[in-house]
Amino acid sequence: MKTFKIEIQPLDLPLKRRFTISRGSRDEVNNVLIKVKCDGITGIGEAAPNHRYNESQQSAMEFLSEFGDYITGNPYDISILVQKMEEHLEGEYSAKAGLEMAVYDWIGKKLNIPLYKLLQAPDRIGPRTTYTFGIDQPEVMKEKVVEAGPYPLLKIKLGTDYDKDIINAIRELTDKPILVDANEGWTTVDQALGMIGFLNKQNVFVIEQPMPAECVKEMQELKLKSTIPLIADESITGKESLKDLSTQFHGINIKLMKTGAISTSLRIIHQARKIGMQVMVGCMIESAIADTASALVALWADYADVDGHLLLAENPVKGLEILPQGHIQLKDLPGLGFE
């Protein structure tokens, strides 16, 4: 039997700028650093709780404290850990994702192999990542365009009464392709269709979660009429029927902090492929620890949005790399590949 000693501590991460979406603003994120220790090897993970899913730093730490040390006869079978966490308590998926991440990191280090090789990823280089702009006044968005200089794809948060002004201000400075994320901010089909008609002429290649998750019939109508691919975000946590979601969206945005595990995320991706849905891998605002794990999953995706660590004032580790053309790349190091 192997005993993994679990250590946790708050990971409070100040942001470079105030970050605003349709639901609110923040200047700092309050995550959790997770370490697992066994056989003299330490695996590292991170939980990034989100209030949208009734999670907080405190609730994540309480779950991990109550879960206690992880004891197993087969440390290389990650499904045992995932099952034990599910049996222990429903919910708290960011904490579960962070713990699985740490154990996976330990496995790679123990076997002296990068996880992307262990999981037989198609490559260690993945799709280009977007660089995200939180909602702000149009003139401030212009400043952000300058800051995003080296990144070829932009992700713009919308869901205001001045959405068009934001896009017009950005288009004064750049013609880079844009991914729009409304974060459930458009409340009627007519409003969403009006914005889609406008965005169709603005080099927008994807729209994330245009309407609230409960607007199922409205999203079904919107999908039939949309000229831009629609990607589910708040509508998918990993427990929903993908066939049902495929009537509303062209694709899904997988986030480790919602699915609760790398292994679960990969299973969902394979299921989505079988029914012809596009796949995006996103992130919360998190350090390079969790973003590296997200980048690992994104090696199987069409789109990547793993830029949470770029929004922070500083990072606790060096992990994934972003190449000059914006492609994500995992380091060729054991485990998740941290320095």
Can you describe this structure?
The structure is a single chain. The protein is globular. The protein has 339 residues and is α/β, with parallel strands linked by helices. It has 12 helices and 15 strands. It folds into 2 domains: 111 residues, Enolase-like, domain 1 (2-Layer Sandwich), CATH 3.30.390; 212 residues, TIM Barrel. The chain is 35% helix and 25% strand.
Short overview:
The protein is of the alpha/beta class.
Write the layout of secondary structure elements.
Elements: E1 2-21, E2 24-38, E3 41-47, H1 57-67, E4 70-72, H2 78-88, H3 93-111, H4 115-118, E5 125-128, E6 130-133, H5 138-147, E7 153-157, H6 163-171, E8 178-181, H7 189-199, E9 204-208, H8 216-225, E10 230-232, H9 242-246, E11 251-254, H10 256-259, H11 262-274, E12 278-281, H12 288-298, E13 303-304, E14 321-322, E15 327-329
Parallel strand pairs: 6-7, 7-8, 8-9, 9-10, 10-11, 11-12, 12-13
Antiparallel strand pairs: 1-2, 1-4, 2-3, 5-15, 14-15
**Number of domains as seen in the coordinates:** 2
Radius of gyration: 19 Å
Instruction: Give the helices and strands as they follow along the chain.
Output: EEEHEHHHEEHEHEHEHEHEHHEHEEE
Here the CATH topology of the largest domain equals TIM Barrel
Distance between the termini: 29 Å
* Dominant shape: globular
Category by helix and strand content? alpha/beta
> What's the count of strands?
15
Going across the biggest sheet, name each strand in turn: 6-7-8-9-10-11-12-13
CATH architecture of the largest domain: Alpha-Beta Barrel
Mean pLDDT: 96
CATH class call of the largest domain: Alpha Beta
CATH homologous superfamily heading of the largest domain = Enolase-like C-terminal domain
Largest beta-sheet details: 8 strands, parallel
The percent of residues in helical segments reads 25-40%
Strand content: 25-35%
List unreliable stretches of 5+ residues: none
Number of helices: 12
